[in-house]
Amino acid sequence: MLEEMTGVVHSVGGGSYQVVLSFSEASVEAYLRGRLKLEDRLGEQVVIGDLVRTSQAAGGSHVIEEVLPRRNVIARSRGSGTAIKVLVANVDRVLLVVAVSRPQPKTDFIDRMLVLAELEGIKPLIVINKMDLKSAENEADILEDVYRSVGYDVIRTSTVTNQGIDRLALETTQGITAFAGQSGVGKSSLINSLEPQISLKTSEVSARHGTGRHTTVRGRLIPFSNGGLLADTPGFSDAGVKGLVAQGVLGSLFPEFLPYLSDCQFRNCSHLHEPNCSVRKALSGGAIRPSRFESYRMLYDEVKVS
Ligand SMILES: Nc1nc2c(ncn2[C@@H]2O[C@H](COP(=O)(O)OP(=O)(O)OP(=O)(O)O)[C@@H](O)[C@H]2O)c(=O)[nH]1
Ligand SMILES: [Mg+2]
Ligand SMILES: [Zn+2]
Q1: Given this model, what pLDDT does residue 208 score?
Q2: What is the CATH superfamily name and number for domain 3-67?
Q3: Does this model's pTM top 0.70?
């Protein structure tokens, strides 16, 4: 007698999967059906955030029968550019964290992350952290001016004064939220401000089934008390675009380029050197910001070199 259910994969490690069942919200340990196990060995792994169909045998053990289609993934292209590792699936938003200083905000880094979010259709929110530091308002104004003009949402925060933390909590009540940003910008601090218990949880040692055996956890979803889920996964921040983005589509991942793309004289215009390029005209006219265009140029070269 089999009982079928769906659930979300919350953690992966040691050959088993923690699945939170959609109906009961019970967390169960599940194993892969043989066919999926083969795919797992071939690199098509079941990842956190995956919506899966499970069955429960009479004995009570849960088996993942099928991975339902993914809405999107956050993946990392490894050095060579061809091997792609999926870190998390079905992400609802990515909080792209920058600091006003310490470390200095790097717009090329922000733009790279935005391109990856656009590629997957994941809503980005730009978080400008460390607003308590000297000259923060000036620095934030400059950044906000660029990114609001493109249409992105910007939230200013400080984990010292708690500025913006309420707003962040409101933005993360639904679905899966991932954090991205350079080291030191305050991602962990923001998570702790949002949910003081999480720092405790993340240091907990897994002792499933009382064995206390150390398991390698490849990432996990941590429930926020506001109802959302935090994707606790390393690696998004050093993501490359090589192998993920084709040169020809790069321009369309810069939303402010879109109105101009069809007006270039050449259909496959790179927007770098061709005559009668509508994108470069928009750049000289001020509709496209220089820092954004520079990021486009940099990423274009990066995609090209293989
Ligand atoms: N002044 C100030 N310092 C902050 C703020 N948020 C975080 N910090 C400090 O910045 C440093 C880095 O913060 P983390 O939260 O560890 O940064 P992170 O982004 O998680 O860094 P990685 O884990 O290395 O990627 C710590 O010393 C924090 O105390 C803030 O709002 N204002
Ligand atoms: Mg951290
Ligand atoms: Zn062009």
Answers
A1: 43
A2: Nucleic acid-binding proteins (2.40.50.140)
A3: yes
